[in-house]
Amino acid sequence: MNRRVFKDAKLDARFRREGYVILDLLTGEDIAQLSDFYEQFSYCHQYDFSATILTGESESRRKIHDALSAVFRRRLLAVLHKYKIILASYAVKLPQTEYSRVGLHQDFSFIDEQTHTGLSIWCPLVEVNQENGWLGVVRGSQDFNSNLREGCPLPYPELVSVIEEKYLTRLPMHPGQVLFMDNRVFHGSPANRSAHRRVVAAGVAIPTDGQLVFCHRDFQMDANSLEVYEVPDDFYVHHSLATRPREGKRLADVPRIVSPLTEAMIKARQ
After folding, report:
1. Does pLDDT of 56 surpass 90?
2. Is 33 helix (H, G, I), strand (E, B) or coil?
3. Which residues of 167-200 are buried (b: 16+ CB within 10 A; e: fewer)?
4. 129-154 tens-digit pLDDT
5. How is residue 56 annotated by DSSP?
6. Contacts of 155 (CB under 8 A, 6+ apart)
7. What is the rounded distance in angstroms from the CA atom of residue 28 to the CA atom of residue 121?
8. Which residues pair with 213 in a beta bridge?
9. Do 106 and 154 meet the contact criterion of CB atoms below 8 Å apart?
10. Smallest Cα–Cα separation from 248: which of 196, 203, 213, 202?
11. DSSP code of 42?
């Protein structure tokens, strides 16, 4: 079993079971600071759905990461067992657009998940609900596909409809709450149909003794394998995700494996 994620044993056990927890950690001052800083960089987020990590403006990405990660380190790391922030960004949905929907997916493999647990961090700066793009998660889905992976849609297209209909847990949240989620958990969000932007401060954390990795999939050369790289801690702050790294160490080329999954397996895990 991977080592403890949360300092509190009961909280850690709940996280292990569900794949996520939500805690009240940010203050009103934190929310105001994060919101004001977003306004300075709103020009980076002009698509229906956009995330700072996807923009090509490396200087803006660095400034946003530095500001957000400072808040994350101050408020969030205290509840975690020896973690570090390796990425902080905004995730924004423009108002009244169907194209802001984010389909079911798993996040990148940021670390060796056989021995460590990577965390996705999600902190809404506005109320999130069914109208503006709340997050939907599949409880316990961190157990289903722990193989090394690149960022991509959920690799079970035949199950997407039934998962969305029967197995998503929707997460209404208010500013100040923080979602900690295992990188492997299946999740997605509907379109923002409200009249206002949905702004989230998001991030990734890994254990302090863990090695950050990046998995590159070359669709033209060999879509059935992954190139696995050992990369520095600031890698995701500036790297263009669809490209082969120019830094770090290429550790291995491995088969791209998707573990078998059925509806019965999902149902049994709920």
Report:
1. no
2. helix
3. bbeebebebbbbbbbbbbbbbbbbbbebeebbbb
4. 999 999 999 999 999 999 999 988 99
5. S
6. 145, 149, 258
7. 18
8. 230
9. yes
10. 213
11. G
